[in-house]
Amino acid sequence: MDETDDTAIAGDSSARARSFATRFGGRKLQAYRGIPIFAAPGVHEAGLAALQAHAPAGARVLELGAGGGALSQRLHDAGFAVVACDLFADNFTPPDPIEFRAADLNAEFVAALGGPWDAIVALELVEHLENPRHLLRGCRELLRPGGILVLSTPNLANPVSQASFLRQGDFQWFAEADYREQGHIAPVAPSVLRRCFDELGFVQVHEGSVANPFRRLRSLRKLGRRLVAHALSALSGTPRHLRGEVYLGAWRRAG
């Protein structure tokens, strides 16, 4: 790959990240204290609950992929000592003063983010990155022994995602429009994540899923996909608590 190719890839990454600054053309989004939430309903609340269950009160928390700052502000309001990280500082607009550090998570980012951290939160992030294992290795370096990593990503194991792949060749949230507008470039199945964490010496302390995957299949135009998804749900061996739209887990770094 020549230098021109490298420049094009970097430009694509920046363009994808910049789409969040425009609020996707001014679409109406959920918000927390006036800050738009770029996640499915309930994901931020579930991430906070997992963190509170497994990290000490007042823990030093690094949020990766902080975007506009909705989750950082929520964590700050819950009493955590938060530092936020994303590619662009100008998108980060929480009402309270929260420290921000810019870093490209597709490159070497550990040195820029210090540590060790009591916990890292990376919600709806890994699907935007070129190398998910690179992110997890970096998080392991940044966490203290016993530290917690809370991570979420679109759930490929839910029946709607499986029906989407069966009918269209793309998983839910990984169609062409999602690639171009949201930068969803890396679908990662829950089973693959579990193997990655196991290889890195993490122990899973929480596993669940969030949001109804059928919530965007209400139009008549999507009836076929909805019927296939219901059929797959009836046949699925995936536990019901892992069939939500978004997969969310928490892992503890071994000593």
SSE order and pairing:
Blueprint: H1 3-18, H2 23-26, E1 31-32, E2 35-36, H3 43-54, E3 60-64, H4 70-77, E4 81-86, E5 99-102, H5 110-113, E6 117-122, H6 132-142, E7 143-154, H7 159-168, H8 176-182, H9 190-199, E8 202-210, H10 223-235, E9 246-253
Parallel strand pairs: 3-4, 3-6, 4-5, 6-7
Antiparallel strand pairs: 1-2, 7-9, 8-9
Helix pairs in contact: 7-10
Can you characterise this structure?
The structure is a single chain. The chain has ten helices and nine strands. The protein is of the alpha/beta class. The relative contact order is 0.15. It has a seven-stranded mixed sheet, with helices on both faces. Strands 1-2 form a two-stranded antiparallel ribbon. The protein has helices at 3-18, 23-26, 43-54, 70-77, 110-113, 132-142, 159-168, 176-182, 190-199, 223-235; strands at 31-32, 35-36, 60-64, 81-86, 99-102, 117-122, 143-154, 202-210, 246-253.
Keyword list:
255 residues; alpha/beta; 7-stranded mixed sheet; two-stranded antiparallel sheet; globular; disordered N terminus
Report how far apart the termini are: 39 Å
User: Which class do the helix and strand fractions yield?
Assistant: alpha/beta
Helix content: 25-40%
Helix tally?
A: 10
**Mean pLDDT, all residues:** 92
Number of strands: 9
Strand composition percent: 15-25%
Spatial strand sequence of the major β-sheet:
5-4-3-6-7-9-8
Largest β sheet strand count, sense and barrel closure: 7 strands, mixed
Residue stretches low in confidence (pLDDT < 50, at least 5 long) are: 1-11
- The rounded Rg comes to 18 Å
Please provide a brief summary of the model.
With 255 residues, this protein is of the alpha/beta class. The protein has 10 helices and 9 strands.
